[in-house]
Q: What sequence folds into this?
């Protein structure tokens, strides 16, 4: 009798667990973090030479007019549409603020010496137009006679569409309007533009 | 005769004996109480309907032999699929990559399943990419894409693999058909075989170096995303 009773009682709990368990769901969580540093990236570099990451070359040709004095159309030559690929760039910066500086160096004869009434140097005024996300930024200008660069800090990002750094030049001149340019196979000058992320 | 009929017969005889003996059953004669009868009846009710070749009579001690009978009771039961992450085996942790836009990244979050049957794993991204705060300026981006891969192993040679762009893993709007979470019996990457405390499964996050020139350019800042991994049995 006792055996039968115990067997019956054992069967009941065995059947109680016969129902399949409900599907379970468990969870894990992983985190991925990283950073992007402040920096500027050249997207449209022009035709840079040397160590420059963007830039170009503008060949002005013969700087003198027939009487030996400085040609009067150098600004027109420099800013000609044909030079756009040399003077217009796209640079983007990851930072919220952007620093731009421009430093123009005079166009100098490589060997010719300037005597009285002659000139081996052409000065000019360089301009940099900056386009920001919010629109045109205040343009920068730097004359080649200035010792220091001209700088600006823009509280905005450079525009991500189209070219946003455009270089022009004007006011080409010799120290004296009547100076005769000395002959030289190579007059060279440069405009140095630095674009950097702002703080 | 069927076994349950035989058992009811046994019960009836025992009950009759009980009535004959009355309170004198305190001498230990079988059976001695109504609960005993009910227990026997319960046992009988649990019997499968299987034919029995012969009826067996069981006597109370002193009234004859045999004095006991062995009853075979077949119990059918099942155990629901147990499915979870192994102890200390849930995907967790943080992976950080400085300057990820320059270097790109690849990282595996290892985890171990502990499922006695098929299971599914689903993933949900909180941001749909590595995201930094603030609105995106025109032409720039505040969300960096990357890929998420799942590799599931089992106790057998069966494995499951899939990859989705993290942008497709946003809950409610994601389009990753392979393993957009949360996991359920029908949603998520399915591993068809049991995987009990099996190491080797991983969640991989990866991205090549970003082309900041082509853009959209990622703005400077701290970026983050959270992936929630859910696991469900999938019978």
A:
């Amino acid at each position: 009798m006792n055996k039968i009773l115990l067997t019956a009682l054992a069967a009941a709990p065995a059947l109680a667990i016969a129902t399949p368990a409900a599907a379970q769901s468990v969870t894990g969580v992983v985190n991925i973090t990283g950073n992007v540093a402040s920096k500027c990236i050249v997207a449209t570099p022009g035709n840079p030479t040397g160590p420059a990451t963007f830039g170009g070359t503008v060949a002005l040709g013969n700087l003198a007019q027939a009487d030996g004095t400085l040609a009067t159309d150098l600004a027109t030559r420099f800013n000609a549409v044909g030079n756009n690929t040399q003077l217009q760039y796209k640079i983007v910066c990851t930072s919220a603020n952007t620093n731009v500086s421009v430093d123009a160096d005079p166009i100098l004869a490589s060997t010719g010496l300037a005597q009285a009434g002659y000139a081996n140097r052409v000065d000019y005024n360089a301009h940099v137009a900056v386009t920001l996300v919010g629109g045109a930024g205040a343009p920068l200008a730097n004359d080649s006679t200035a010792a220091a660069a001209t700088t600006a800090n823009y509280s905005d990002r450079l525009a991500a569409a189209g070219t946003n750094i455009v270089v022009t030049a004007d006011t080409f001149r010799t120290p004296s309007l009547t100076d005769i340019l000395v002959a030289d196979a190579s007059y060279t000058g440069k405009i140095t533009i630095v674009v950097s992320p702002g703080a | 005769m069927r076994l349950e009929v035989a058992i009811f017969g046994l019960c009836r005889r025992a009950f009759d004996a009980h009535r004959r003996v009355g309170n004198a059953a305190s001498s230990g004669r079988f059976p001695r109480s109504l609960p005993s009868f009910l227990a026997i009846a319960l046992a009988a009710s649990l019997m499968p309907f299987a034919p029995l070749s012969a009826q067996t009579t069981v006597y109370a001690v002193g009234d004859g032999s045999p004095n006991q009978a062995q009853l075979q009771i077949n119990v059918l039961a099942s155990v629901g699929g147990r499915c979870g992450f192994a102890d200390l085996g849930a995907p967790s942790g943080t992976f950080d990559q400085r300057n990820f836009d320059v270097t790109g990244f690849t990282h595996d979050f290892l985890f171990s399943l502990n499922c006695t049957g098929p299971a599914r794993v689903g993933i949900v991204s909180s941001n749909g990419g590595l995201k930094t705060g603030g609105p995106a300026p025109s032409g720039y981006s505040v969300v960096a894409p990357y890929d998420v891969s799942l590799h599931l192993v089992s106790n057998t040679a069966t494995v499951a693999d899939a990859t989705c762009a993290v942008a497709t893993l946003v809950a409610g709007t994601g389009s990753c058909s392979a393993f957009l979470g949360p996991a359920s019996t029908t949603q998520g990457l399915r591993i068809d075989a049991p995987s009990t405390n099996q190491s080797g499964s991983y969640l991989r996050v990866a991205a090549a170096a970003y082309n900041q020139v082509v853009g959209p350019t990622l703005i400077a800042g701290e970026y983050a995303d959270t992936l929630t991994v859910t696991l469900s049995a999938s019978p």
Q: What stands out?
A: Chain A touches chain B through 47 residues (CB under 8 Å). The longest helix of chain A spans residues 2-16.
